[in-house]
Amino acid sequence: MPELVFFSGTMDCGKSTLALQIEHNRSARGLQGMIFTRDDRAGAGKLSSRLGLVTDAVEAADGFDFYAYLVAHLSKGGRCDYVIADEAQFLAPEQIDQLARVVDDLELDVFAFGITTDFRSKLFPGSQRLVELADRVEVLQVEALCWCGARATHNARTIGGQMVVEGAQVVVGDVNQSQDEIGYEVLCRRHHRRRMTSASARAAALSPDVLPVAAP
């Protein structure tokens, strides 16, 4: 039976890499998939991995109708054996409903990949709808790590290396940005709650207030 599967995890845990691996494995067996993405770091109409892999995709902007697009594609004699939707957290709930309809009415497997929560630890609307509708939710087993070495469970937005907790839910950025740019960092729950990024932790370690005092 076809399924709607949601592969979730923090940033830097290999979601897009797995999406590209699924595409490779299935295409190697003669299957043809349709790849969709939204606001990928490599630009519009691209699905990219931090390992350097990239492929073309259909950009699913605001108002894009997955079901109508696939029906039109199939009606014109096109082929589609499965669907991959990357950056699914950015999709609207009604677009997730359309993906579920693709599974139920068109009988195609849909593999969606996305972050579950935003920089405030709040569910993205698209991810919330996927959790509600998916036949399976798979948490990726490749663990991203916090700067302290613990398993990273939260995504933090940073400006100048400092964690921020206000602003628009969707601001495109990436890990390893320069300190003058909006960036993101994955943290464990403890350090996300304390708003302690790797930069602020280094600053604290260098502070004279926390250095050992030499004996007179």
Instruction: Name the overall outline.
Output: elongated
Query: In DSSP terms, counting alpha (H) and pi (I) runs of 4 or more, how many helices?
Result: 6
Low-confidence parts, pLDDT < 50 over ≥5 residues? 209-216
Radius of gyration: 20 Å
Query: Class by helix and strand content?
Result: alpha/beta
- The number of distinct β-strands equals 11
How large a portion of the residues is in β-strands, by DSSP E?
15-25%
Terminal CA distance reads 76 Å
Mean pLDDT: 86
The major beta sheet can be summarized as: 6 strands, parallel
Q: Can you list the strand order of the major beta sheet?
A: 5-2-6-7-1-8
Instruction: Please bin the fraction of helical residues.
Output: 25-40%
Multimerization status: single chain
Order of helices and strands: EHEEEEHEHEHEEEEHH
GO molecular function: kinase activity
Keywords: ATP-binding, Cytoplasm, DNA synthesis, Kinase, Nucleotide-binding, Transferase
Subunit structure: Homotetramer.
Enzyme class: transferase
Layout of strands and helices, then pairs:
Layout: E1 4-8, H1 15-27, E2 33-37, E3 46-48, E4 54-56, E5 58-59, H2 66-75, E6 82-85, H3 93-106, E7 109-114, H4 125-133, E8 136-139, E9 154-159, E10 162-164, E11 182-187, H5 189-193, H6 198-206
Parallel strand pairs: 1-7, 1-8, 2-5, 2-6, 6-7
Antiparallel strand pairs: 3-4, 9-10, 9-11
